[in-house]
Task: structure prediction
Amino acid sequence: MTEIRRAETEDFDQIWTILHEAFLKGNTYAFSPDTSREEAFHLWLEMPIATYVAVENGLLVGTYFLKPNQPDLGSHVCNAGYVVRSNARGKGTGRLMCEHSLKEASKYGFKAMQYNFVVSTNQVAIELWEKCGFDIVGTLNKAFNHMEYGLVDVFIMYQWLHK
Result:
């Protein structure tokens, strides 16, 4: 059974393993494959208002963060980023984290959640986000330099939380 809990500093070794693998692939996140451990720590644990981990049998199998999408007058909309360990994909961890993040976002008082940069070739994520209630509200043409496919489109996805 997978449990989701707040991340602690001591979790970062395992979080880094998950992030580093994802960043190296260059197919879902805009972060450079050369992102350092220190930069990742800042991005994933210091900048967000909350970071969570999905734990199964003592092993971190996924992680996500929540943060305001914009400052001040746009701060009622949050942003989240999710990463699942490659050998744990396809087991419902992404869905579990998304559903958890929507509840947590509401607890923090956010009115909506927006994903700013969903790579169009990441069909598994797009289908999951749509099943979780997100709509594609915009397309940024050729905005992501995919390490395998070159320039591909990016989607902006959005969900109003107070229906």
User: Anything to note?
Assistant: The radius of gyration is 15 Å. The longest strand covers residues 135-146. Residues 3-115 form a domain with the Aminopeptidase fold (CATH 3.40.630.30). The first helix runs from residue 12 to 25.
